[in-house]
Amino acid sequence: MPAAYEGALQDLVDQFGELPGIGPKSAQRLAFHILSADAESVERLVEALRAVKSRVHFCVTCGNVAEEEQCAICRDPRRDRRVICVVEEPKDVVAIERTREYRGLYHVLGGAIDPINGVGPDDLRIRELFARVGDGSVEEVILATDPDVVGEATAAYLTRMLRTMDVPVSRLASGLPVGSDLEYADEVTLGRAFEGRRRIDEES
Amino acid sequence: MPAAYEGALQDLVDQFGELPGIGPKSAQRLAFHILSADAESVERLVEALRAVKSRVHFCVTCGNVAEEEQCAICRDPRRDRRVICVVEEPKDVVAIERTREYRGLYHVLGGAIDPINGVGPDDLRIRELFARVGDGSVEEVILATDPDVVGEATAAYLTRMLRTMDVPVSRLASGLPVGSDLEYADEVTLGRAFEGRRRIDEES
């Protein structure tokens, strides 16, 4: 679709069109929504955008999103510091928190090992995970990467590497449909998967 | 889905979720995109949002979007001022411009008469249309409201009202599938509809 509106409006259509999952028609609809929205609500959106860029970053300990140096979970004294649950993304933390089954800490990798898309172990927060496990206070590592190809490969890689560190490693199991996305699992399924986790460092 | 992230990020998820056509999962994906996007591109989006609010308004003559008092089409001396094409929304102007078949002016109503949703003739720029037609320089009014229920009803209403003003009134016809949305018609179909328009003020 060629540029069609006058300057500023077409500019906004283009900007919206660059966001993930927003096609040309959606971008146009959003731009017209902004045009007719009251100035206050647009200013709220602007402020929210800027606040995220200026205030939100990643927890120095676990890699989850945080507004302070550490995220709310790492700062919470009631969490069980002996267990670390390894996930791919911050939104997986949210999905697991919603089950209310898990009281330990997290470690957010920032993705999964995916050689086809050029993501190797060094591109993820794997070294930081080993550093945390290496200090001796961790009694279990739960691998909760997505049950898809790259998530399983990442779990297999981490299992192999953690075997040298003498810490029990488990993997979320029963209930999660294979090939799906952890983030979309319902609370009950995800809770069952926690209960039914099995050790995988003792196999083979 | 309950609030789940820390302050600013959840705030942005909520703000995105209020936009039309953006569900909770899309809002979350967009917020994470903003979080990891470079600050410059977010600032470009912010500036585009603000520019639309501060610079874009509606043409005093035709109701199309404009950055000056009049829109680019009304200001263009090459346009044929004897013909007015009446559409519902500014995006319909863009769709018709894309056909390159039409060289007259437009009149953007700002919607269609839709009593179920509480939109009556006084909520649209209908009085302004009559004022333009009433000055005597207009030789044809082309009704290009959407070929759906409310668009047809609006066209019927305008035909009835314009009959007193002694100006030929035509309606886009052949080619547009009934029940669809003008904005999505392809250029050829829309061009044919222009060619095949028929007078409707002489019927009944």
Automatic annotation (TrEMBL), chains A, B:
- Provide this UniProt record's keywords sorted from A to Z: DNA damage, DNA recombination, DNA repair, Metal-binding, Zinc, Zinc-finger
Tell me which Gene3D superfamilies the record gives.
3.30.60.80, 3.40.1360.10, 6.10.250.240, RecR Domain 1
Q: Name one GO molecular function term.
A: DNA binding
Could you confirm whether the keyword Endoplasmic reticulum appears in this record? no
One Gene Ontology term from the biological process aspect of the record: DNA repair
For this protein, the record's Pfam families field holds: RecR_C (PF21175), RecR_HhH (PF21176), RecR_ZnF (PF02132), Toprim_4 (PF13662)
- State the SMART domains in the record: TOPRIM
- List, alphabetically, the CDD domains matched: H3TH_StructSpec-5'-nucleases (cd00080), TOPRIM_recR (cd01025)
> What InterPro entries has UniProt attached to this entry?
DNA_Rcmb_RecR, Rcmb_RecR, Rcmb_RecR_Znf, TOPRIM_dom, TOPRIM_RecR
Where does the Toprim domain lie?
82-177
Q: Where are the zinc fingers (C4-type)?
A: 59-74
PANTHER family per UniProt = RECOMBINATION PROTEIN RECR (PTHR30446)
Function in brief = May play a role in DNA repair. It seems to be involved in an RecBC-independent recombinational process of DNA repair. It may act with RecF and RecO.
The Swiss-Prot or TrEMBL record describes its family as follows: Belongs to the RecR family.
Record protein name field: Recombination protein RecR
Q: Which gene encodes it?
A: recR
